[in-house]
Write a structure and sequence with these properties.
Blueprint: H1 3-26, H2 29-63
């Protein structure tokens, strides 16, 4: 996984955490839900990138 992809996913998760907390503090359930969605999306993207990394490593292992 490239450094930029990792950074983008972490930023998205952090942004989601912020939105979720802001929604909780202000009593806005829609903002809170949007924050949860952003966090889940960032996490899912990270899992996908990690799976690609694992496949790439497996190919390298068996190629040699």
């Amino acid at each position: 996984m490239s450094f930029l992809d990792k950074l983008k996913n972490k930023v998205q998760k952090a942004k989601g955490r912020g939105k979720e907390e802001a929604g909780r503090q202000s009593g806005d359930p829609y903002l809170e839900a949007e924050g949860r969605k952003d966090r889940a999306s960032g996490g899912a993207k990270q899992v996908g990138e990690q799976a690609k990394d694992a496949a790439r490593e497996a190919r390298r292992t068996f190629r040699s």
